[in-house]
Amino acid sequence: MTDQLILPGRRVVRAGPVSASVPLRPVLVTVLALAGALGVAVLAVGHGEFPIPPATVWEVLTGGGTRIERHILLNLRLPRVVCALLVGVALAIAGALTQTFARNPLASPDVLGITAGASAGAVAAIVLGGVAGSLGVPLAALVGAGISATLVYLLAWRRGLDGFRLVLIGLGIGEILRGFISWVLIRAELVDATRANIWITGSLAGRDWSHAEPLALALLVLVPLALAATIALRVLAFGAETARGLGVRLQRAQLFVVVIAAALAAVAVAAAGPIEFVAFVVPQIALRLCGGSRPPLLASAMLGALLVVGADLVAQIVVAPKELPVGLLTAMIGTPYLLWLLLRRSRKVSG
């Protein structure tokens, strides 16, 4: 028999000798965000030159529908929507990890140079060819993100990692990489430069199962590792000396968190290009909705999925029959928030 005991903000569920404390707000936010993401996904799958109502979408997904409806939904539209959901999950979790680890709301993969590294690798593959071109754009983006994350980690390490120093080093590496991208684009042929510019803006156009399936497989591995990384983050939150006193190998724990966050950002960028500000904004929204001292991973993941799939749907509607890059929409959301956050922090310092 199950007893339920209500505590402020939490529900303790008991079943015999086993009990679990469930935080109500994060669970509610996660469930509502998941429902919202799935609802928007159904609308997105049905939107297009051949509109399909939600009832028919459900019929097709459960094995019914006409041959044309199944082809349009399952082969043309569903892969794009799945990509949008998974990219949102990956970027939001990556941002939650880096912001918690650095204890700094500015510390997202966008700011730390990881996204710029992926963009540099992809642009090199598109324009320069050679070794980068032989890797293909997604793999070149993964390699670029890995190199960038490694450089930031090594340069920021001084007997441990300080969040403020990590952000400064990341900003510097990111600017160097953006300069490299600009130099490559100036030298590129018009066709290659156009293709590269579309990619680095962040777009889900033309995504199929060859993009969605590798991303899904990567997240099956990385998301459980990210949840495991939260254990290390809880200990690290008490400070370096306390963590060492508890027997935690500080450098190994910090490296583990950085690697998982970088890998999540890299696979998302490899699938859809650098969709800016999702990793930066979503964890802070989740933190404000759920409360607590750090961004919750699962709530961040569901809100990230909702933001990206929603932004992609809006990007297809605003200038139809053409469409905007989804990265432009997320940047329009994230840029004002970044300015507000910087203004707020400067007022705190001056006050």
From TrEMBL:
The record's Gene Ontology cellular component field reads: plasma membrane
GO MF, any single term? transmembrane transporter activity
Intracellular or extracellular location(s): Cell membrane
Q: What is its main location?
A: membrane
Enumerate the UniProt keywords alphabetically. Answer: Cell membrane, Membrane, Transmembrane, Transmembrane helix, Transport
Bilayer topology annotation: Multi-pass membrane protein
State if Transmembrane helix is listed as a keyword.
yes
Question: Gene3D superfamilies given for it?
Answer: ABC transporter involved in vitamin B12 uptake, BtuC (1.10.3470.10)
Q: TM segments?
A: 27-46, 78-99, 111-132, 139-157, 163-186, 215-236, 256-285, 297-318, 324-343
Keyword Chaperone listed: no
BP-aspect Gene Ontology terms: siderophore-iron import into cell
Family in the record:
Belongs to the binding-protein-dependent transport system permease family. FecCD subfamily.
What is this protein identified as? Iron ABC transporter
Question: Top-down, what is the taxonomic lineage of the species of origin?
Answer: Bacteria, Bacillati, Actinomycetota, Actinomycetes, Micromonosporales
